[in-house]
Amino acid sequence: MPPKPTDVSTYMQTLDHPLKAEIEQLREILKSADERLSERIKWNAPSYHLDEVDIVTFGPLLRKKDEILLVFHHPKVVEVSSPLLEGQFKDRRLITFHNQADIDANAEELQRIVREMLVLIN
Question: Is domain 8-121 given the CATH code 3.50.30.10 in the classification?
Answer without folding.
Answer: no
